[in-house]
Design brief:
This is Helix-turn-helix transcriptional regulator. Pfam families: HTH_17 (PF12728), PBP_like (PF12727). One of its GO terms (molecular function) is DNA binding. InterPro entries: HTH_17, PBP_domain, SinI_DNA-bd. By secondary structure, the chain is α/β, with parallel strands linked by helices. The protein folds into two domains: about 50 residues, Arc Repressor Mutant, subunit A (Orthogonal Bundle), CATH 1.10.10; about 230 residues, D-Maltodextrin-Binding Protein, domain 2 (3-Layer(aba) Sandwich), CATH 3.40.190.290. The strands form three sheets. Strands 4, 5, 6, 9, 10, 11, 12, 13, 14 and 15 form a ten-stranded mixed beta sheet that branches. Strands 1-3-2 form a three-stranded antiparallel beta sheet. A hairpin with a 4-residue loop joins strand 7 and strand 8. Helix 1 packs across helix 2. The longest helix has 12 residues.
Length: about 300
């Protein structure tokens, strides 16, 4: 029996009905009543597959057991996300504390979404394994926010000539580190392990940096000879950057919460020209996949 073809991102009424196992008439009535994600263009109903998938997951949740979380986006710090939350007028409050803390807040219904970038050394992927561990037994969907460049943030001109993660272990190099539950810290630990080094081989500043911009500030102010962070923060302060890895930064939320106004407004804004232009100006971002489904649990 031939394999069933994968539906395109934009489906016709017939394609969407087949995908949902509904009659065309039933889906038409739902679309006309604005009860499913759909758009009527040129007299034809069109259905975005990603939005339809999220809608389906939302319907599967038990409404009597829903706990409405506050409009808080918890987890990792990202300058593009910070800017988009402000500019979109989505009404979300940001609570930076690291990727794993964001997932913990999501699991406890203390936040409606978590911003995460946690590597999975076993699969080579990002975020799904950590989400499964931190939000067990819950239905959640991760959407791609952006792909980012992570690497060494160094003084302008790179006077120490650092080029690899192993160079951070050189004598006399003080590193601006992150808190233990931050995605950047977990990624650094992974890269050090691949290089055959333990975390205690590095000399860190006494207090960890709470956000990406604090890492860059420590290097710019001369308090640290190096930091591990994203290209965008290095460029903002005129610092040298050595790329080491490309990572996926996701936003994770329960299916129903993706349809509430705050997250809807944020993701709608992220589909616009201003968002893409800002990402290009900051540098180190790839936003072609923004808004696509990274994983569903």
């Amino acid at each position: 029996m031939p394999a069933r073809p994968t539906p395109s991102e934009i489906m016709t009424l017939k394609e969407a009905a087949g995908w949902l196992r509904l009659s065309e008439r039933a889906l038409y009535d739902l679309a006309r009543q604005r009860r499913v994600p759909a758009a009527q263009i040129g007299g034809k109903w069109l259905f975005p597959r990603t939005a339809l998938s999220l809608w389906l997951g939302r319907q599967a949740e038990a409404p009597d057991h829903r706990i409405t979380p506050p409009p808080i986006l918890a987890g990792s710090h990202d300058p593009l996300l910070d800017w988009a939350v402000r500019q979109s007028g989505c009404g979300l409050a940001l609570r930076a504390g690291g990727s794993l803390d964001g997932l913990m807040a999501l699991a406890a219904h203390q936040a409606c979404a978590a911003a995460v970038h946690v590597p999975d050394p076993d699969t080579g992927g990002f975020n799904e394994t950590a989400t499964r561990a931190e939000v067990p037994g819950d239905s959640v969907v991760g959407l791609v926010w952006a792909w980012r460049e992570q690497g060494l943030i160094l003084p302008a001109g790179n006077p120490q000539g650092l080029a690899t993660v192993a160079d951070l272990a050189r004598p006399g190099i003080t590193v601006a580190g992150r808190q233990a539950r931050a995605g950047s810290h977990l990624l650094l630990v992974h890269l050090l392990s691949e290089a055959g080094l333990r975390l205690d081989a590095l000399r860190f500043l006494p207090a960890p940096s709470a956000t990406e911009d604090e890492v860059a500030a420590a290097v710019a102010e001369g308090r640290a000879a190096a930091g591990f962070g994203i290209r965008a923060e290095a460029l903002l302060r005129g610092l040298h950057f050595v790329p080491l890895v490309r990572e996926r930064f996701d936003l994770v939320a329960r299916p129903r919460d993706w349809f509430d106004p705050p997250l809807q407004r944020l993701m709608e804004f992220a589909r616009g020209v201003a968002f893409r232009e800002r990402a290009a100006r900051l540098g180190g971002y790839e936003v072609e996949a923004t808004g696509s489904v990274a994983f569903a649990l």
